[in-house]
Write a structure and sequence with these properties.
mainly alpha
Length: 154
């Protein structure tokens, strides 16, 4: 189980790093670039089928992405990723306070993700919430084992 814990929080670290990079990219890349890129990427598909569901949704998403929305997503991703990176670092170091704090923070992320799912259903949010729940279970088991070992040692 310890190895599963390490793999689980390792995956959280990779996810957190990708979120931080995406947040930085959103700060750097102007919102108009997304609409232009979506149009260029879907141009051929829409010429063949102007009603293509994926292409039309992709373009609609890119066009509604305002500078304010881009800024919000950038800040959200950076903060979300930085908090996760900090917690993962503390968990890898074995700092006891990090276990319960991680459970609270990841639980809060799940609540927020499910709230967002209620507003805008997305399988990605469900998958992320399930991954968070699995990692929380692994953290809880590891915390229990660490406490048991500490009580057993003189």
């Amino acid at each position: 189980m310890h190895r599963a814990f390490q793999i689980g929080i390792g995956l959280k670290a990779v996810n957190a790093l990708l979120e931080c990079l995406a947040g930085v990219a959103l700060f750097i890349i102007p919102a108009s670039w997304f609409a232009a890129t979506a149009a260029a990427l879907t141009q051929h598909e829409l010429q063949e089928d102007p009603q293509d569901v994926i292409a039309t949704h992709f373009i609609a998403w890119a066009q509604q992405l305002s500078p304010a929305a881009t800024w919000y997503y950038a800040v959200y991703l950076l903060l979300h990723g930085a908090v996760k990176l900090g917690l993962v670092f503390a968990l890898f170091k074995g700092w006891l306070w990090a276990y319960p704090l991680s459970l609270v923070v990841f639980g809060g992320f799940i609540v927020y993700q499910l709230y967002r799912f209620g507003l805008h259903p997305s399988w990605g949010l469900i998958a992320l919430s399930v991954l968070d729940a699995i990692v929380m279970w692994l953290i809880w088991r590891e915390y229990r084992d660490v406490n048991r070992r500490r009580r057993a040692s003189p």
